[in-house]
Design brief:
Layout: H1 2-17, E1 19-22, E2 28-31, E3 38-40, H2 43-51, E4 58-60, E5 78-79, E6 82-83, H3 85-90, E7 95-99, H4 105-113, E8 118-121, H5 128-140, H6 143-164, E9 170-177, E10 182-183, H7 190-196, E11 199-201, H8 215-221, E12 225-228, H9 232-243, H10 249-252, E13 256-258, H11 261-264, H12 271-290
Parallel strand pairs: 3-4, 3-7, 7-8, 9-11, 9-12, 12-13
Antiparallel strand pairs: 1-2, 5-6, 9-10
Helix pairs in contact: 5-6, 6-12
Length: about 290
């Protein structure tokens, strides 16, 4: 009977060690033990992992993973257009975390064929970010810190909702690239940020995530506000281009704003800072209109 008790104890210990979480594509990721060697395939997933307290377990990150500062020293495994599979395998990861719409489906499929567990993120609403932090904390065995980070995010989000609920609605054109002119639809989290701030994405209804539009389409939509989220030098050049288009209400009323891409288009923890900036810009436009 002693051996039976020992066997049951071992089975119980194994069950306790096993961790699992369902990703944003509905795939359940099951690990025999909390992940100790994690590879991140996108800057946003790198931020999510560090927020979940799993920074010490991250052994490789994608290009442009520059936040937090500790991520800059980690080995690079490629970018969204090309993942270095040999480099990833050489890091011996027991978990890979990717961005569903930011990483190529073929690359994700190949990683899974190679036997690597892949957890995909694709938060389309701000409420999903703290849930992802908690799930990653569960997979990494860092739940206390993950819960703390998730609670802080929820608190900040609640404060923004209280501050900006009931504000007069403004129509917004959100630009992520100038040549070709690209925007974002309701399938990307930026639309939820705009809604939080009392804004309506004029191209939310378009198919896809980041469709191309023409400047004539923007003229037809005639938004109250234009928000540009591009690298600084490109944004500065495009500001001058838009300001020549006096036919637009946003131009005539000087309601054109710039927000750093890393703060707003990447669905990670820092998006709250981006949301605060966008909400403040929209409030500035409202105040100017009341004068």
């Amino acid at each position: 009977m002693r051996w039976l008790g020992l066997l049951l104890a071992l089975i119980a210990a194994g069950a306790q060690a096993q961790v699992h979480a369902t990703d944003d594509r509905g795939t359940e990721v099951v690990l025999a033990n909390p992940a100790q060697r994690i590879v991140s395939l996108a800057p946003s997933t790198t931020e999510l992992l560090f927020a979940a307290g799993a920074g010490r377990q991250v052994v490789g990150v994608s290009a442009f993973s520059d936040h937090p500062a500790a991520a800059r020293a980690l080995p690079r495994i490629g970018d969204s257009s090309h993942l270095d599979m040999e480099r990833i395998l050489s890091l011996h990861p027991d978990l890979v975390v990717g961005w569903a719409s930011g990483n190529r489906a073929a690359d994700i499929a190949r990683l899974r064929r190679l036997g690597l567990p892949v957890f995909l993120t694709e938060p389309k609403r701000l409420d999903r970010i703290p849930l992802l932090i908690e799930k990653l904390g569960r997979l990494a065995g860092t739940e206390p810190q993950a819960q703390h980070s998730a609670a802080a995010f929820r608190s900040g989000l609640r404060a923004l909702r209280e501050d900006y609920s009931g504000r007069p609605r403004l129509t917004v054109f959100f630009q992520i690239w100038s040549r070709p002119l690209l925007t974002l639809t309701s399938r990307q989290i930026v639309s939820d940020v705009l809604n939080l701030c009392g804004g309506e994405n004029v191209f939310a209804h378009l198919p896809g995530i980041a469709p191309q539009v023409g400047r004539e389409d923007v003229v037809r939509a005639d938004p109250d506000v234009i928000v540009i989220s591009e690298p600084h030098a490109i944004a500065a050049a495009d500001l001058a281009r838009w300001r020549r288009m006096r036919v637009l209400r946003a131009v005539r009323e000087n309601h054109i704003y710039v927000v750093r891409p890393g703060l707003i288009t990447q669905p990670g923890p820092r998006i709250l800072a981006g949301a605060r900036a966008v909400c403040a810009d929209l409030e500035s436009a409202r105040s100017a209109s009341r004068q």
